[in-house]
Amino acid sequence: MKVLIISTSLHPHSRSRLLATRILSYFPEKVANVSFLDLAEYSLPLCDATTCVQNPQVQEIIKKVSQADALIFAVPIYNYNISSTAKNFIELVGDALQEKVVGFICASGTSKAYMSILSMMNSLLLDFRTLIVPHFVFADLDDLPENETKISDELEARLQKLGSMTLALAKTWRHLQN
Fold first, then answer.
1. What pLDDT was estimated at residue 142?
2. Is the model's pLDDT at 25 over the cut of 80?
3. What CATH number was assigned to the domain covering residues 2-177?
4. Which residues, other chains included, contact 134 with Cβ-Cβ below 8 Å and sequence gap of 6+?
């Protein structure tokens, strides 16, 4: 089972990236081949729906997404929506998302943005027929203050649950497709 963890934040001290790196440890090597994609390490073009896919970095990330059975997006929530970097990534990789299992880790400044991820989930479900992991991790500043690197046991448990549910759904999804 191939799982790709995607950090979509460009912020140097990103809380969503911290959570993305933590979830890596919840995938046993015997069960899953897990890789990490940090968009802060790329200079991706804005999606123009034409020439952008010819960019070598875009081709690289399309290949990584295509090879994965499951994806976990770690996204910052800005102004009650996912970041523009995350939206651009989804537009760039497009059809490579078809029928993937997709989970989410969200970091926001306020608990009021809890439901912000739903529009992106709906879009992925309808546009690409993804199977959305029903349990997602949402962390606000009460869960993980800015510049804090220690994660609470409760937040660790939520990450672990997301990891195990992602693997279970990906295995089942693969079995049903064969």
1. 84
2. yes
3. 3.40.50.360
4. 165
